[in-house]
Design brief:
alpha+beta; Mannose-Binding Protein A, Chain A; C-type lectin domain-containing protein; Helix Hairpins; signal; CTDL_fold; 368 residues; 65% helix; 12% strand; 2 domains; C-type_lectin-like/link_sf; 8 strands; C-type_lectin/snaclec_domain; single chain
C-alpha cells in the first residue's frame, strides 16, 4: 500500500520539473521561442505522468474499499455465528439446569429405593423370626386353633415382602440407565463448553485482524479525502477555473441522481474525483452561471436535504449549512418530501430552488 511519503517521493521529480518550467516561463524576456516550446512539451509530459498516478491511486482506493466491504461481510457472518453459539450455550445451560433437577429427583428416588430395601430386609428378618416362633408354638401346642390362621398371615406377609423386593429389583436397572444417560449428557456439556471457549478465542483473533484492516482502510480514506480537498492548480480539459474550483457545464437532461453519477464518471475519466458542484463562494459561483448561457433554465448542484441534519453539500457530508441565510428564490425552499435536491436558476436572478426529484435538468460538475 502506497503511503503519503511514497507518493511525495514518487511525484517530487514531476513537481520540481513543473516548478522549474513555471519559474522559467515568468522571465519571458530572456527565453527564446524554442525554449518555450520545449518547456511546454515538458509540462505536458509532467501532466500526463501526474494523470497516470492519479488513476493508479483511484484504482488502489477502490480496491481497498472493496476489501473493506468483504471484511464487513465476514464480520457480520462471524457476529451471527457468535450469536448462534451464545444461543446454543444458553440452551445447554438450560439443559444442564434441567439435568441437575433430574439428578436431584433421581437421588430422591434412590433414597426411597434404599429405604424400601432396608424395610424389605427388616420384614424378611421379622418373617424369619415369626416363622421360628410359629414353628415353636406349633410344636408346643398342636391343639391351638389359631396356629393355622397365624401361619396363613405369615405366608401372606412373606409373599408381600417378596413382591416388594421384586419391584425394587425391577426399578434398579432403569435407574442405572438414567444415571448413565445423565453422565453422558454432562460429558457432552463439558465438551461443548470447551469448544465454545476455543471458538471465542478464534473470533477474538479474527475481530482483531478486522480492526487492523479497518484502521488501514480508514487511514487511506482520510489520506484520499485530504488530497481531494487540495486546490487544483490546473483544470483538466473541459473544466473551467472559477476561483479555486474546476467546473464543467453538462447540458444533458438528467435527474439529480443521474447527474451526480455522470459527474463522478467525468472525474474518473479526467483522473480525479468528480462530484456535483459545491461552491465555496456563492457570488462567484452565481456570476459564473450567468456567463454560461445554458439551454436549461435550471441546473443541478451538489446540495441535498437530510431529514435529520437539514441541507448539506454532497462533498461535505455531515456538515450542514444554514438554509435561512442561503440565497433562495422567493417562496423557496418548498421543503416537500419529493423536493430534497438543490438546483440553481441559470437565468434571471440566479437564485436557488429545491427542485422536484423527477425533474430532468442540466448540471454543474466539479473535479477535485
Amino acid at each position: 500500500m502506497m503511503t503519503r511519503e511514497d507518493m511525495i517521493t514518487r511525484w517530487r521529480p514531476a513537481i520540481s520539473l513543473i516548478l522549474t518550467v513555471l519559474v522559467a516561463l515568468t522571465d519571458a524576456s530572456t527565453v527564446s521561442q524554442e525554449h518555450l516550446t520545449a518547456a511546454g512539451g515538458r509540462v505536458n509530459e509532467s501532466l500526463q505522468y501526474l494523470h497516470q498516478q492519479l488513476q493508479d491511486l483511484a484504482s488502489a482506493v477502490q480496491e481497498l474499499q472493496s476489501n473493506k466491504q468483504g471484511w464487513l461481510s465476514k464480520e457480520s457472518l462471524m457476529y451471527d455465528e457468535q450469536m448462534s453459539l451464545r444461543q446454543d450455550l444458553d440452551q445447554c445451560r438450560t439443559d444442564l439446569t434441567n439435568m441437575d433437577q433430574r439428578v436431584v429427583f433421581l437421588e430422591g428416588e434412590v433414597n426411597i429405593i434404599n429405604f424400601l430395601q432396608s424395610t424389605v430386609r427388616d420384614l424378611q428378618e421379622q418373617d424369619r423370626l415369626m416363622y421360628q416362633e410359629v414353628s415353636s408354638i406349633s410344636r408346643n401346642c398342636q391343639a391351638c386353633r389359631g396356629v393355622g390362621k397365624l401361619q396363613r398371615k405369615v405366608e401372606n406377609l412373606s409373599n408381600s415382602v417378596t413382591d416388594l423386593s421384586e419391584a425394587v429389583d425391577n426399578q434398579l436397572p432403569e435407574l442405572h440407565i438414567k444415571m448413565a444417560s445423565l453422565d453422558t449428557g454432562l460429558q457432552k456439556m463439558s465438551n461443548l463448553e470447551a469448544e465454545t471457549a476455543e471458538l471465542q478465542v478464534s473470533v477474538g483473533l479474527a475481530l482483531h485482524q478486522l480492526s487492523n484492516v479497518t484502521q488501514q482502510v480508514e487511514a487511506v480514506a482520510t489520506h484520499k479525502e485530504q488530497r481531494l480537498h487540495k486546490t487544483l492548480v490546473l483544470c483538466p480539459d473541459g473544466y473551467q477555473k472559477v476561483g479555486s474550483l474546476c467546473l464543467q457545464l453538462v447540458e444533458n437532461q438528467m435527474s439529480w441522481e443521474e447527474a451526480r453519477s455522470h459527474c463522478r464518471n467525468l472525474g474518473i475519466m479526467a483522473g480525479g474525483r468528480g462530484e456535483l458542484a459545491v461552491p465555496e463562494d456563492i457570488e462567484d459561483f452565481r456570476n459564473h452561471i450567468r456567463t454560461l448561457q445554458s439551454r436549461s433554465n435550471y441546473l443541478w448542484v451538489g446540495g441535498h436535504r437530510d431529514e435529520v441534519s437539514g441541507w448539506q453539500w454532497t462533498a461535505k457530508e455531515g456538515s450542514p449549512w444554514p438554509a435561512d441565510t442561503f440565497p433562495w428564490d422567493k417562496g423557496e425552499p418548498d421543503n416537500r418530501s419529493n423536493q430534497i435536491h438543490l438546483c440553481i436558476k441559470s437565468h434571471s436572478n440566479l437564485k436557488f430552488h429545491d427542485c422536484q426529484d423527477t425533474a430532468l435538468l442540466g448540471a454543474i460538475c466539479q473535479i477535485f
